[in-house]
Amino acid sequence: MFVTNIALIEDDEFVRNQLTSFLITQEEFNEVKSFGSVEEFLLKETVGPQVLLLDIELPGINGLKGAFHIKQKFVSLEILMLTVFEDKERVFKALQAGASGYLIKNIPLKKLKAAILEVLEGGAPMSPVIAKKVINYFSNQKVLQLEHSEELTAREREVSHLLIEGKTYRQVASELNIAPDTVRQHIKNIYKKLQINSRIELVREFKLM
Fold first, then answer.
1. Is the pLDDT of residue 32 over 90?
2. What value, to the nearest 5°, has the Cα angle with vertex 73 and ends 67 and 77?
3. What is the third-level CATH fold of 6-137?
4. Which CATH number fits domain 149-205: 3.40.50.880, 3.30.420.10, 3.40.50.12230, 1.10.10.10?
5. Taking Cα atoms as reference points, which of 203, 205, 202, 155 lies closest to residue 183?
6. What is the pLDDT of residues 91-114, one digit of tens each?
7. Is the overall model pTM greater than 0.85, yes or no?
8. Residue ranges in 10-62 assigned as alpha helix (H)
9. How far is CA 55 from CA 1, 59, 109, in A?
């Protein structure tokens, strides 16, 4: 998949320039925009990038609140949190706000690129320390059966199960013998019916039968 538009919101000018300089040299990324705040992004961005790298500690609206507002404006946008914070509270607030992944800033640049490509394939990239926290959380929770599962079609339930197993969009498409775009449409329908915004919310609410 050829990525045409990447954006990042980072208030540290040095970090912002470093990330922009790296990303713009990658052949998969055609355009990279950078912003110093959520407010600047919402004011200047009209179309919306495919992927947004979002810091948490920002002047004005922080990244956690910003993720929610940004997803309201750009529903199909994939948000990857890129921050120094590793605490469970911020991780889950970010994911519940609509973030598709959560990365720690010490991530090597090549792995950051891989994470961007992964999220575009339907993945939910996380730094290892964050992934462990998420796994531990769910292993210690009793996940309730989805209350409104009867609202989903049989195909949507199949897609939901595969997403919960960690499959990417392409893997779901291959397993169900359907097009990736069809998978994306099913996911939009699932999220709308269940009134959720992310895969993590689907995992939290849906119990595998």
1. yes
2. 65
3. Rossmann fold (3.40.50)
4. 1.10.10.10
5. 155
6. 888 888 888 889 999 999 999 999
7. no
8. 13-24, 38-44
9. 25, 10, 16
